[in-house]
Amino acid sequence: MNRCQHWSAPVRRLLSRCPDAACRTQSYRSASVAADRLFAVIVGVYVDGFNLYYGGVALAGGHGVPGWRWLDLRQLSANLLAQHSAWPGATVGRVLYCTARIKGGHATAHKQQQRDQDTYLRALTAAGAVDHIEYGHYVSRVATAPLATRDAHHRPVLVEASWPLMVRDGTEQDVAGATFMVSVARREEKGTDVNVATHLIVDALRGAVEAALVISNDSDLALPVAKARDIIPVGVINPTTGQTAGALKLAPGKPIGLHWGRRLTLKDLTAAQLPDRIGKLSKPAGW
């Protein structure tokens, strides 16, 4: 049996477009040799909005830096495919944006964030920059944990009692290595990773796309991305300043074939901005 018969139908369709018959009988690892001969590939794009936003903040150097938030997701995807993908001639098909609406809080700044986000979501739809927005939700709670700082690798380092702030026991003796417990208000986004995973797998199984571009560095997507790679070629874009999550990398020894990945840059973001005005909608100040 020809090895290519073990591949998914979308992958076999991709390689069947190669004019060189020999390339269609290569192993999946060797399929990359044929990639530059492929014609247009329809790519589904799956965006983890939470991961992309905070990655963008870090890439820009802080929350107050303008020039990147008014992001055209379709243009960003097209640029990434044209400049960096292993799929020459690929075209953006469906763009799915997974996010959650900001809710809660009464501060003026918080209400402005809600208005700005609403404007952006409406602009994405009006400009045709997305085909569908899937919403998760935020959960507010109080968390209790040891007081800590972070080291150079962003790992937690517990704060221990030291002069002039000491901890003593009932006998007035200093407690060596004492730590401090603190309660903090936390607002956590829920559902985005599940929504990305669901749409990715459903589209791959239905044959709705011939390849997928996943914009996220969430290690919780490791299994759905791995399963999708068994069906269609997948590109993974890390939108953060950190290393790509190990779980999202191809396992050692696994064929690379038409799979690929890279890290996002600030230049990628600033080069894919929506027009300042879209109908009655205007880019928020500071964006």
Total of domains: 2
Low-confidence sequence ranges: 1-7, 18-39
Strand elements, count: 12
Largest sheet: 6 strands, parallel
CATH domain class name of the largest domain: Alpha Beta
Classify the fold: give the CATH topology of the largest domain. Rossmann fold
How many H/I helices?
8
Structural class: alpha/beta
CATH superfamily of the largest domain: 5'-nuclease
N-end to C-end Cα span: 56 Å
Mean pLDDT: 83
Q: What gross morphology would you assign?
A: globular
The spatial strand order of the largest sheet comes to 3-2-1-8-9-10
Fraction of helical residues: 25-40%
What is the H/E order? HHEHHEHEEEEEHEHEEHEE
Radius of gyration: 23 Å
Strand content: 15-25%
* Overall CATH architecture of the largest domain: 3-Layer(aba) Sandwich
In short:
The chain is 29% helix and 22% strand. It is an alpha/beta fold and 287 residues long.
Description:
The protein is α/β, with parallel strands linked by helices and 287 residues long. The chain folds into 2 domains: 3-136 and 191-282, Rossmann fold; 138-189, no CATH class. 29% of the residues lie in helices and 22% in strands. It contains 8 helices and 12 strands. It has a 6-stranded parallel sheet with strand order 3-2-1-8-9-10. Strands 4-7 form a two-stranded antiparallel sheet. Strand 5 and strand 6 form a beta hairpin. Helix 6 runs parallel beside helix 7 (222-229). The N and C termini lie far apart (56 Å).
